[in-house]
């Protein structure tokens, strides 16, 4: 527990990239359908923050931690019931740790947010970069794939660094006036956004005192039709 504050957790929005298994390492749709550029045209749905979040899980040789990053705001657009675009703002300053309590939780959250004096640049420095964004750039339908109805590609911006990321998502528009998007867990590479703390990609001779660059992400979004 004493090393708990040293373990990374990251979004996004947030979750950015080199995603696996349904990520930038494999962006081929599971169907023969071709992806189309997101237009953002159609009916606007506002993200419902209480129903939206990014779940994260990160590890090092001695353990793992998990939590969430809240969604601040965003929109999805639909045209004739089909997703045509979306943008999500992720509240990095609100990152939470859910497997610890008390001082241990506060220590790790402060370290991740960069609000602990002297550790501002270790992870996300949320005083300087309080939010991250994900903007959908391409949408491809998937056929008979239990991991998702669509393959989504977008630009993930963290700490003023923008990288492309691709993942499978289940897009549910059956309610008519609401949209739900969910994913299975997938992996992003935190080093792509210059999150360096105890990363073997930036520091040599760490031995077993390193934090894995691969962070597992799971996305949940709920949106309501704009009135």
Task: Give an account of the 3D structure.
The protein is mostly beta strands and 227 residues long. The protein has one helix at residues 102-113, and strands at 36-37, 43-47, 53-60, 63-79, 82-91, 96-97, 131-141, 150-158, 161-172, 178-182, 186-189, 214-225. Strands 1, 2, 3, 4, 5, 6, 7, 8, 9, 10, 11 and 12 form a twelve-stranded antiparallel beta sheet that branches. A hairpin with a 2-residue loop joins strand 3 (53-60) and strand 4. Residues 1-33 have low confidence and may be disordered.
Give the overall shape.
elongated
The chain-level mean pLDDT equals 85
Task: Provide the domain count.
Answer: 1
CATH class: Mainly Beta
Which sheet architecture does the biggest sheet show? 12 strands, antiparallel
**What is the beta-strand fraction?**
35-45%
By CATH, the superfamily comes out as Lipid/polyisoprenoid-binding, YceI-like
Q: What is the correct CATH architecture?
A: Beta Barrel
Percent range for helical residues?
under 10%
Radius of gyration: 17 Å
Estimated structural class: mainly beta
Low-confidence stretches: 1-33
The counted number of beta strands is 12
CATH fold assignment: Lipocalin
Features:
227 residues, mainly beta, Lipocalin, 12-stranded antiparallel beta sheet, 1 helix, 5% helix, 43% strand, disordered N terminus
Strand-helix topology:
Blueprint: E1 36-37, E2 43-47, E3 53-60, E4 63-79, E5 82-91, E6 96-97, H1 102-113, E7 131-141, E8 150-158, E9 161-172, E10 178-182, E11 186-189, E12 214-225
Antiparallel strand pairs: 1-7, 2-4, 2-12, 3-4, 3-12, 4-5, 4-6, 5-7, 7-8, 8-9, 9-10, 10-12, 11-12
């Amino acid at each position: 527990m004493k090393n708990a504050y040293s373990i990374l957790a990251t979004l996004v929005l947030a979750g950015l990239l080199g995603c696996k298994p349904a990520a930038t390492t494999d962006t081929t749709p599971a169907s023969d359908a071709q992806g189309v550029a997101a237009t953002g045209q159609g009916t606007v749905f506002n993200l419902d923050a209480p129903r939206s979040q990014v779940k994260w899980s990160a590890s090092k040789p001695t353990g793992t931690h998990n939590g969430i990053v809240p969604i601040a705001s965003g929109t999805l657009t639909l045209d004739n019931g089909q997703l045509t675009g979306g943008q999500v703002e992720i509240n990095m300053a609100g990152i939470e740790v859910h497997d610890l309590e008390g001082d241990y939780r506060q220590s790790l959250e402060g370290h991740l947010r960069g609000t602990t004096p002297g550790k501002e640049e270790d992870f996300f420095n949320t005083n300087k970069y309080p939010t991250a964004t994900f903007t959908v750039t391409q949408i491809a339908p998937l056929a008979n794939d239990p991991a998702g109805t669509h393959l989504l590609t977008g630009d993930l911006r963290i700490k003023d660094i923008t990288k492309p990321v691709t993942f499978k998502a289940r897009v549910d528009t059956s309610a008519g006036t609401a949209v739900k998007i969910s994913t299975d867990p997938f992996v992003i590479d935190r080093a792509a956004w210059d999150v360096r703390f105890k990363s073997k990609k930036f520091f040599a001779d760490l031995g077993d005192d390193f934090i894995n660059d691969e962070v597992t992400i799971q996305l949940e979004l709920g949106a309501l039709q704009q009135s």
